[in-house]
Amino acid sequence: xxxxxxxxxxxxxxxxxxxxxxDRHLIAGVLRSSGSWREVVVGRESVTVQFDPxxxxxxxxxxxxxxxxxxxxxxQQSVQPEVTLTVSTDEASAPDLSTCAEANRCTIEExxxxxxxxxxxxxxxxxxxxxxxxxxxxxxxxxxxxxxxRQRVPAxxxxxxKGSLGIYALEGPGGWPIIGRTDAILFDKSSPDPFLLxxxxxxxxxxx
Length: 208
Hints:
By secondary structure, the protein is α+β, with helices and mostly antiparallel strands. The chain is built from four helices and 13 strands. A hairpin with a 6-residue loop joins strand 6 (120-125) and strand 7 (132-135). The protein starts with a strand and ends with a strand. The model has no long low-confidence stretch (mean pLDDT 89).
């Protein structure tokens, strides 16, 4: 693949602006496994790395990054196991489900089936700690944000916007229409890696 552009981000970070979105998680996996970077963060069209400017000069960090991403990533394999979430769709757990289905001129069962059959992957984390943007939702389904965002969205809630799901690991405000809620432990503060979902995680939704 052609290499992504490398853009400086302050004194201790570099951003790879990618063109092939399917490669971002592979690139991030290679960078994390190298042990050369303080932090590796996947964005929608980029991968950003933080380095120690005392141990590594910016020019050396750039050369190292360029060398890493010039590897044949087609030979790399994703090591992240698929996560299955069981999601409740009763009225209390899915206050916007019927509205989303009606807007798409399909039954609730048809709407949920299209999402179930989609190839889902956690694209990135952002907006709030542990909030997972999930890509791959059937593009035939349309939908936008709520006109009036909620002040409180329970942890485990699953939101829907065209092409994406949004999964709330923690309780907080939010503007995504809510189509379900999982009781899976998405945040465990006692764990070294407290969030269940991370960028690149393949995801399967089972509706209950």
